[in-house]
């Protein structure tokens, strides 16, 4: 039978659950104590950000950072204490250097021509004549001595000439013995032929029968 109260109402039965008897001790999420560095780190970040923002504003306004301005001021102070050269002394030193350079250049220009002689310049402009003993040489007998041209031919052969021919005269003959040559390149050869044969006169002629022609006269 269900129990009744004094006022005549029927009493409800009591129902118990897990929350009626909570366990002893802390219940739920529990955080341990934090270290000092972890607690200070947010404040340090705020200070660093504030400093960076301040430097950015300073650079935007002044155009340079504070330590750059300090370095510039220090350079100005140092330069103000250094001795300054006057404009006149610098101008005189530059003028002296210019005069010395011009004098050296003039000496070089005047000394260069003196080192070369006229003969050296002439030899450098045109090659020296060369004796060619292989050049064709004709020995013409303008005398009445038979075999005289052959004898002189042998003299030239003994001197090293390899293309010597003895011949009789054809046409007019000069009054004296001479050696004639056609081209300027054969001048040295003609001069040596004249020296070997003992002839004094050497001249260039376009009527020579060979590059070098020796005419023997009495």
Overall radius of gyration: 63 Å
Order of helices and strands: HHHHEHEEHEE
Largest sheet: 5 strands, mixed
Strand order of the largest sheet: 2-1-5-3-4
Write down how many β-strands occur, each being a DSSP E stretch of 2 or more residues. 5
Instruction: State the end-to-end CA separation.
Output: 193 Å
Helix content: 40-55%
Low-pLDDT sequence parts? 1-5
Structural class assignment: alpha/beta
Strand content: 5-15%
Q: What shape does the CA trace take?
A: rod-shaped
> In DSSP terms, counting alpha (H) and pi (I) runs of 4 or more, how many helices?
6
Mean pLDDT metric? 75
Provide a compact summary of the structure.
The protein is α/β, with parallel strands linked by helices and 218 residues long.
List keywords for this structure.
alpha/beta; 5-stranded mixed beta sheet; 6 helices; 46% helix; disordered N terminus
Q: Could you explain how this protein is built, in words?
A:
The chain has helices spanning 36-62, 66-81, 87-114, 118-125, 148-158, 187-197, and strands spanning 137-141, 164-167, 178-181, 201-204, 212-216. The protein is α/β, with parallel strands linked by helices and 218 residues long. The chain has a 5-stranded mixed beta sheet, covered by helices on one side. Strand 3 (178-181), helix 6 and strand 4 (201-204) form a beta-alpha-beta unit. It is rod-shaped and about 180 Å long. Mean pLDDT is 75; it is low at 1-5.
